[in-house]
C-alpha cells in the first residue's frame, strides 16, 4: 500500500532530515520553544551535537525565548524565599560533571554513564537531633533531604523518582505542612513532613541499616484504641508517601517483620516518632 | 552583579550568591512557571523544585552555551511544560472534549501580574505579529503545547506551524532588538 501524499511528504522530510539534517534543522525553533515531544527532542539533540551551526541558532533562539520568559515575571510568594534558602543550607551540591553534558542545560535527559546518582540524600548536618519540634527550619531541612533524594536520581528510574518528587513537593507545598524528626543515640530515627489538611505525610527512616536476613522493616501508623495500620515496607532511605492519614493518628513506628511484611506488628518498634508536633493526634 | 556573575559562585557553594541570585531570578522563574501552569499551588511546587535544582546543579552551567538567565529560565520552562503535559495527559479525555468548545488560549497574557517595561515591550511586539505567528508562538511557549498539537489546534499543516513559529520569533527579535 502506498502512503498517501501527506504521509509521503512527512516521510521524505524525515528521511531528508536523517540524510542532510534539513528536516531536523527545521526543528530548531520548536526545540527552542520546548515544543517537541520527547522522542523528537532526543533526535534533535543528537543532531545538535554534530551541527555547530544549529547550536549557534539554538543559542540565538534561546535569547528570544528568554524575553518571552521574562515578560511573564511576577513576584514569587514571600514564603517561598525562606523555604528555598533554608533548603539550600541543608542541600549538598552536585560536583561538576566530568564528562560531556547534555546539550542545553539541566533540563536534559540523563547522560548515560554520568555520575552515579544513587548516593544517600545529603543532609549537610550531624545526626544529633533528638525529637526536634516542628519549625520552618526543620521543615526545610527534612524537605531538602527528601527533594535532594528525589532529584539526585539520574538513572532509568528517573520518571518514577520524579513522580515521587512531585508527591513529596505536593505535601511540602501544603500551607499547613510541618516537619518533625527524632533519632535515638545510635542515630536511628524517623523524619516526617506532614499536612493534616491533605492528610498526607512523607516519611523517611534513617540509620536502620539492612534488616536481618529474611526480614523487612515495616512502617506503621498508630492511633489510640485501634490496631496499627501498615504504611508499607521501608526500603533504605527511600521516602514513603502516606495518604489518607486519619487526623487522630498518634505516631509512626518501624518494626522488624518477616520478609513481605505482616498484617499486624509482631515485634516491638525499632524507632518511633510522635505525630502531635506535626498537627495530628487530636 | 548579574546572573552570569552569580551562577559560577553558586556552583562553588556560595550561599550568599545564591540568595542574591534568588532575588534576581525567583520572579521570572515563578512567573514563567505560573504562566504555563496557571494553577497556583502547582506553580509553587514546580518553582520550588526548579530553584532547588538550580542550587544543586549550578556546576552544570556552561557559559559557552548561553547566558545564565537563559539557562535558568530554560530549566524552569521545561519543568513547567513537563508538568502541564503530564497534567493534560491525565485529563486527556476531558481535554479533547473541552478543546472543541474552547477558543485557542493565546490571549491570556498577564492577568493580575505586575507591570513592567519588559513585559509591556514584549506585549507590544507580540501584537505586531500576525495572528498565526502570535498563536503559534504563545500556544507553544506559554501554554506548553507541542508544535504538532499547535498545528492541530490551529488546523494548519506542520510545516506552516514551524514556519510561523520561526517568523514570529524572528519578528519578535527585530522588534525587541532596540532594547536588547
UniProtKB/TrEMBL annotation, chain A:
Tell me where the transmembrane regions lie. 128-152
| Gene3D superfamilies found in the cross-reference section | Anti-sigma factor, zinc-finger domain (1.10.10.1320)
- Family annotation (Pfam families): RskA_C (PF10099), RskA_N (PF22618)
GO CC entries: plasma membrane
Localization, UniProt: Cell membrane; Membrane
Disordered: where is this region? 91-121
Question: What InterPro entries does the annotation carry?
Answer: Anti-sigma-K/W_factor, Anti_sigma_zinc_sf, RskA_C, RskA_N
User: In this protein, which residues make up the domain named Anti-sigma-K factor RskA N-terminal?
Assistant: 24-60
Q: Which UniProt keywords apply?
A: Cell membrane, Membrane, Transcription, Transcription regulation, Transmembrane, Transmembrane helix
Domain (Anti-sigma K factor RskA C-terminal): give its ranges: 133-270
Q: How is this protein named in the record?
A: Regulator of SigK
Supply the source organism for this entry.
Streptomyces typhae
TrEMBL record, chain B:
| Pfam families per UniProt | Sigma70_r2, Sigma70_r4_2
**UniProt xrefs under InterPro entries:** RNA_pol_sigma-70-like, RNA_pol_sigma-70_dom, RNA_pol_sigma70_r2, RNA_pol_sigma70_r4_t2, RNA_pol_sigma_r2, RNA_pol_sigma_r3/r4-like, WH-like_DNA-bd_sf
Domain RNA polymerase sigma-70 region as annotated: residue spans: 26-87
Record keywords: Transcription included? yes
Q: From the UniProt record, which GO molecular function terms apply?
A: DNA binding; sigma factor activity
Gene Ontology terms describing biological process: DNA-templated transcription initiation
Q: Which UniProt keywords apply?
A: Sigma factor, Transcription, Transcription regulation
What region holds the RNA polymerase sigma factor 70 region 4 type domain? 119-172
In terms of domain of life, where is this protein from? Bacteria
The record's family statement is:
Belongs to the sigma-70 factor family. ECF subfamily.
Extract the PANTHER family matched here: ECF RNA POLYMERASE SIGMA FACTOR SIGK, RNA POLYMERASE ECF-TYPE SIGMA FACTO
Q: What is this protein called?
A: RNA polymerase subunit sigma
Amino acid at each position: 500500500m502506498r502512503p498517501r501524499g501527506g504521509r509521503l511528504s512527512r516521510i521524505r522530510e524525515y528521511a531528508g532530515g536523517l540524510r542532510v539534517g534539513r528536516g531536523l534543522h527545521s526543528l530548531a525553533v520548536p526545540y527552542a520553544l520546548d515544543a517537541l515531544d520527547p522522542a523528537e527532542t532526543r533526535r534533535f539533540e543528537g543532531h545538535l551535537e554534530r551541527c555547530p551551526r544549529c547550536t549557534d541558532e539554538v543559542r540565538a533562539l534561546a535569547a528570544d525565548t528568554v524575553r518571552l520568559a521574562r515578560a511573564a515575571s511576577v513576584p514569587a510568594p514571600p514564603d517561598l524565599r525562606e523555604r528555598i534558602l533554608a533548603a539550600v543550607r541543608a542541600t549538598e551540591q552536585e560536583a561538576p560533571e566530568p564528562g560531556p553534558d547534555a546539550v542545553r542545560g539541566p533540563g536534559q535527559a540523563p547522560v548515560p554513564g554520568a555520575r552515579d546518582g544513587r548516593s544517600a540524600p545529603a543532609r549537610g548536618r550531624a545526626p544529633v537531633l533528638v525529637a526536634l519540634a516542628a519549625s520552618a527550619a526543620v521543615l526545610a531541612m527534612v524537605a531538602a533531604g527528601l527533594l535532594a533524594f528525589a532529584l539526585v536520581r539520574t538513572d532509568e528510574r528517573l520518571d518514577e523518582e520524579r513522580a515521587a518528587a512531585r508527591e513529596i513537593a505536593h505535601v511540602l507545598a501544603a500551607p499547613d505542612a510541618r516537619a518533625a524528626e527524632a533519632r535515638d543515640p545510635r542515630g536511628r530515627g524517623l523524619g516526617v513532613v506532614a499536612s493534616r489538611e491533605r492528610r498526607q505525610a512523607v516519611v523517611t527512616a534513617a540509620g536502620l541499616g539492612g534488616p536481618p536476613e529474611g526480614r523487612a522493616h515495616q512502617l506503621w501508623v498508630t492511633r489510640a484504641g485501634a490496631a496499627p495500620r501498615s504504611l508499607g515496607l521501608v526500603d533504605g532511605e527511600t521516602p514513603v508517601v502516606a495518604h489518607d492519614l486519619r487526623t487522630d493518628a498518634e505516631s509512626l513506628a518501624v518494626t522488624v517483620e518477616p520478609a513481605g511484611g505482616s498484617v499486624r506488628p509482631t515485634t516491638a518498634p525499632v524507632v518511633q516518632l510522635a505525630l502531635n508536633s506535626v498537627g495530628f493526634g487530636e | 552583579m548579574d546572573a552570569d556573575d552569580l551562577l559560577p559562585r553558586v556552583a562553588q557553594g556560595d550561599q550568599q550568591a545564591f540568595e542574591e541570585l534568588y532575588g534576581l531570578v525567583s520572579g521570572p522563574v515563578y512567573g514563567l512557571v505560573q504562566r504555563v501552569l496557571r494553577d497556583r499551588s502547582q506553580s509553587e511546587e514546580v518553582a520550588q523544585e526548579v530553584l532547588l535544582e538550580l542550587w544543586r546543579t549550578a556546576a552544570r552551567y556552561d557559559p559557552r552555551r548561553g547566558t545564565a538567565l537563559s539557562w535558568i529560565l530554560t530549566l524552569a520552562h521545561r519543568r513547567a511544560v513537563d508538568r502541564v503535559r503530564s497534567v493534560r495527559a491525565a485529563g486527556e479525555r476531558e481535554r479533547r472534549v473541552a478543546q472543541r468548545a474552547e477558543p485557542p488560549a493565546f490571549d491570556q497574557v498577564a492577568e493580575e501580574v505586575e507591570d513592567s517595561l519588559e513585559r509591556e515591550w514584549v506585549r507590544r511586539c507580540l501584537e505586531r505579529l500576525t495572528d498565526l505567528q502570535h498563536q503559534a508562538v504563545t500556544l507553544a511557549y506559554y501554554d506548553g503545547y507541542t508544535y504538532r498539537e499547535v498545528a492541530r489546534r490551529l488546523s494548519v499543516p506542520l510545516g506552516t506551524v514551524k514556519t510561523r513559529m520561526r517568523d514570529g520569533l524572528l519578528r519578535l527579535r527585530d522588534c525587541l532588538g532596540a532594547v536588547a
